[in-house]
Specification:
Layout lengths: L3 H9 L5 E5 L7 H11 L5 H9 L3 E5 L21 E4 L14 H11 L6 E6 L5 E5 L2 E5 L8 E4 L3 H24 L1
Antiparallel strand pairs: 1-2, 2-3, 3-4, 4-5, 5-6, 6-7
């Protein structure tokens, strides 16, 4: 199982074309997490709690001047919409937008499923896929309307995030190389 340090080291390996932003200055408190668990009925594993009390929430994106954002109604291969990902969470930071918080993401999940797969904590840009966590299990959802279209991730949160950095970097390289052809 990967550690927080391995995750952050993998983040440091990204070049300057990547932008990372989060709530590192004011991440969640243990009390905040406990209250959220009590209010929602979710149980967060130690790696999720570690992430929340260290990072709060994070955004990983390829800078817009490098990866042009698709326009509305663009017809492109789906991966070209995946210029980044969002790791939602909890924070003490008043500057953190509400759309990056667990509460708003849980409400969003409830809009299309009566019983979501857990706490929505991750989304790849372009709405390519989402991930949920509850009781130490990470579930990746590919179709938010299909109850059975998900897979269980084998690993902890940091394994998952390292894999997502690898996926994003691979797509970035493909995007860059396509522009050279």
């Amino acid at each position: 199982m990967a550690t927080q340090e391995e995750f952050w080291e993998r983040k440091r390996q990204l070049n300057d074309d990547f932008f990372v932003m989060g709530s590192l200055a004011n991440p969640a408190t243990e009390e905040q997490i406990r209250k959220y668990e009590e209010n929602t009925g979710f149980t967060f594993s130690e790696d999720i709690k570690d992430f929340l009390t260290t990072f709060g929430s994070l955004v990983f994106e390829v800078k817009e001047e490098v990866w042009k954002r698709p326009e509305e109604f663009d017809v492109l291969p789906s991966w070209k919409f995946g210029y980044g990902f969002f790791v939602y969470g909890l924070s003490q930071d008043d500057e953190m937008p509400s759309w990056m918080g667990f509460e708003e993401k849980h409400a969003e999940a409830l809009e299309y499923k009566e019983k979501p797969l857990g706490q929505l904590f991750f989304k790849r840009s372009g709405n390519l896929y989402r991930a949920y966590t509850d009781n130490g299990i990470i579930k990746i959802e590919y179709d938010k309307y299909d109850e059975d279209d998900f897979e269980i991730f084998d690993g902890n949160l940091y394994d998952f995030l390292i894999e997502e950095i690898n996926n994003l970097e691979q797509d970035y390289k493909e995007y860059i190389n396509e522009g050279k052809a």
